[in-house]
């Protein structure tokens, strides 16, 4: 099957839905940020709105890694993220960014047992009141979260990344700052052309429901290049997940202010030469 190569001008015309909002780097999420050649600083210097770190409770430390085999004792959450973030807030007189209108969501994905790891994280964060009291920095917990019945028992600086299709009791929902899901759970779309109509309809309903709850939406596992970003923006997905920090930043800073819809169906590439 032939791969279809599309020029940028066509890709920008394929928004499946109109865009009522303006997308900026505030809508960019640095996925597995610690795997960047320069963690934190790369996304921070681009003024990303969300940065993600995965943590393990291991040998008395909170270590940053994607899997156990990648654990390294010098890669601690404190050294890689908390201390630099504290420096930024102090330098910016109580704000996470020099532009006091900008905000940062720091998403911490718990890889080891949820309650133990989160308790250790809370203990560590309490040593950083500059961070926990910073109004423009929000700490969101993902991964192995505790039971939703416990959400309200954590300090007010702890928030939670919710699951998009999950129903939350009101008390727990009040502590949820975002609703996320694996895009591949709903579609195997490869990022080319537009998302097939039945799957697109399902995704749109999910996003609409989340927005009705006043919660932003993020999909992980999504294709990570220009046309995919455009289609996600067409769905009004609030955080665009990326491993390609500079490419997404450049795109968001230079994308056309206006685009028209193209509803032409496109059969997703299924593999092969």
From TrEMBL:
Family annotation (CDD domains): PI-PLCc_GDPD_SF_unchar3
Name of one Pfam family that matches: GDPD_2
Listed name of the protein: Alkaline phosphatase
GO BP, one annotated term: lipid metabolic process
Signal peptide range in chain numbering: 1-18
Keywords: Signal
A molecular function GO annotation: phosphoric diester hydrolase activity
